[in-house]
Amino acid sequence: MRFAAARNAAQAERSLQSTPDLVHTLRNGRASILSVAADERHIYSGSQANEIVVWELQNLQIKTKLVGHTGSILTLECCPEQQWLFSAAGEHLSMILSSF
Questions:
Q1: In this predicted model, what pLDDT tens digit does every residue of 12-54 receive, in sequence order?
Q2: CATH for 54
Q3: Torsion of CA 95, 76, 37, 86, to 10 degrees
Q4: For residue 86, what are the domain limits?
């Protein structure tokens, strides 16, 4: 029993030390990205610049930028059934946007 426990502990330690592979980095100028959400076609990033950037998932290029918030975008959530994107920002405002 002790040997199995020691082996499991060693395996757990090795898995904690493994580093995931970096697949891609999204950059939007100098504004920090504070929130991220995705659906089957797009990645959405919310920033300190009070905008939501819509990225094409296929080529990771910017499709458009959504403006309307006057504070940093703190959270994003996709609702694929309704094709909605929910956003909440630092100005005490939540929005429901039709996703693309």
A1: 666 666 788 878 788 878 889 999 999 999 999 999 999 999 9
A2: 2.40.10
A3: -30
A4: 25-98
